[in-house]
Structure formats: structure tokens, C-alpha cells
Amino acid sequence: MIVLGRIVAPFGVQGWLRVHAFGDDPEAWRKMPQWWLSADADAPAERWTPRVLEAIKLHGDGVVAKLSGIDDRDASEALGSCYFGAPREALPAPAQDEYYWADLVGLDVVNMQDQPLGCVKSLIETGANEVLVVADGERERLLPFVEQVVRKVDVTAKLVRVDWDSDW
Q1: Within 13 Å, how many C-alpha atoms sit on residue 5's CB side?
Q2: Rounded distance, CA 141 to CA 122, Å?
Q3: In this predicted model, what pLDDT tens digit does every residue of 73-123 receive, in sequence order?
Q4: What letter would DSSP give residue 28?
Q5: How many DSSP H helices and E strands does the chain contain?
Q6: Domains of the chain
Q7: Of the candidates 3, 32, 71, 151, which lies 20 to 30 Å from 110 by C-alpha distance?
């Protein structure tokens, strides 16, 4: 399951949900017929519950969504702050030079001098840009996922090439 975000709060009284998207194009999810919900982001696929996506829209600086069967505030509150996602085959294909976070986790990271820096452990959204959390044993580096730092991502070769000194 690819985790797309998290439900953070009810929105209004008609069952709408305020969601925190893990990515920068949640409107592309309109093409998905349903979302899968789970309290645990790492749960196996059979523990995710499907819900039909009725609507999604940008609202202010966030995103709100309406799922079938969630028709009032009580129902939206009952969901709590669960994760939502989809199987890979249900997701729209990313555009060139765009990646799902799940595609980046586990990739090896090397700098321009071919020095290994570790592998991508996770990503953090900061508002300004995403940040790669690169782990090498006990050490973690936080690398901004921006063009000046991340020079090449090759998912097939499982490699991220960065302009980053190994001493940083």
C-alpha cells in the first residue's frame, strides 16, 4: 500500500475530512475511485478498508475530501486521524521527474564524488520543500529534496545522486 496522507480532522458537519497530503498534487487523486484507510501506515494490505472517494478539493492552504458512508461530523470524528493510501496499481502514474515517496525510501544515496552517504529512510515535508532522511548506521543526514542538492534519481538502479559533502 502506498500511503498518500493522513486524515487530520473533521471539516464541517456533512462528513468532509481535512487531510494532510504526503505529496504535492492531491488533486490528481480525483481519478482514483477509492481510498483505503488504516490506523497503521505499516499495516498489511488486508487491514486497509476501502472507501469510495466522492470528492476532493483544495481549501485554503489544505485539502478536504468526502468519502462515501461518512455523511456527518460524528462519522468523520469516528475515523480519527487514520492514514489513507492506495495500492500502486490504483495510483496515477507520476510525471517525469516526479516520484511517490514510497519509491524513494530504500534507495542508496551517493554524492558527486561517488561516496556513499546511506539510504533514504523516510521523507519529511517542511512546507518549503521535502527533505530526505538519509540513514547510514547510527548517523542520519537531512538533505533538502531540491534541484541544487538532488541531482539525479534513478529508481530502476535504486540510486539517488546528490551534491552533498560526506562531512556534512
Answers
A1: 20
A2: 11
A3: 999 999 888 999 998 888 877 888 888 888 899 999 999 999 999 999 999
A4: G
A5: 2, 12
A6: 2-90 (2.40.30.60), 101-162 (2.30.30.240)
A7: 3
User: Which candidate, 139, 142, 146, 137, places its Cα nearest to that of 122?
Assistant: 142
Could you write out the three-class secondary structure of 53-109? Answer: EEEEEEECCEEEEEECCCCCHHHHHHHCCCEEEECHHHCCCCCCCCCCHHHHCCCEE
Q: In angstroms, rounded to a whole number, what is the distance separating the alpha carbons of residues 34 and 165?
A: 43
Find the Cα–Cα–Cα–Cα dihedral 52, 49, 155, 27, rounded to 10°. Answer: 30
3-state secondary structure of 153: strand
C-alpha cell at 24: 504535492
